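Quick one:
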Amino acid sequence: MTEPDVVLVERDGPVATVTLHRPGVRNALSPGLLARLREAMAALDADEGVGAVVLTGADPAFCAGLDLRQLGGGAIDPSAGASADADDGRPSWQPWARLSTPVVGAVNGPAVTGGLELALHCDVLVASERARFADTHARVGILPGWGLTVLLPLAVGRGLARRMSLTGDHLDAAGALRAGLVTEVVPHAELLPAAHRLAATIAGNDRAAVRRLLRSYRDVEAAAVGEGFAVEAATAAEWAARHDPAEVERRRAGLLERGRAQLGRDDPGIRDDSGLRDDPGPGEGGR
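Output:
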């Protein structure tokens, strides 16, 4: 069952803005949000009048990942729907099916684990100074299945990708810019205007040429990574089949103090990241 209000879509000429809208739970990924996000992305991609899409989250976060309370209680199956493949080898159940329209990610706050994977599926990232990036799969006791082990090293390099995944450490906006994960960091109030300007520039070019060039980039990437997406999907499915969801719930509480110690108790990202606040909330770096 979809939740129509958890994903908002706006149009301004050839630029569409998609906003994850569960701010009270840091835009944690529920089944309804995922279904609505996939529907929205597919509809925009089929619209010839759309030249670029901006993806963002309702403040204070970009996305805190899967709702770990649902996952820990067995309400979410991370491997569900993993049987079909898209034409570039990516499982069709990844955040959205392969798009021909460029996606600009406007990262307004913490992008944790599943939220990081959403960001990695964007074509270009612009970040607010409040942005934070982390992969906490290993800390929670789950494995990625949306291409993180393929896309993160492509974005930041082999060493930093493994460091982020194996430690669960956070990367701030400045570090993400140095690593090449994001292309620009701007003051928070200027994030959406900056992302919209970038999207409008893309949309102003020859539409067919942009789409074909983007497909070329993706085809080259798919050739370079070979069976990487399939290997990750199979590993995630095997792990989920034998892993006790109750272990996720046990580990969930341990994220709070670690995040505080790393980022500092007065950092706004601590309040904004649902894995780091006093009342942990449902979305804490799952997926």
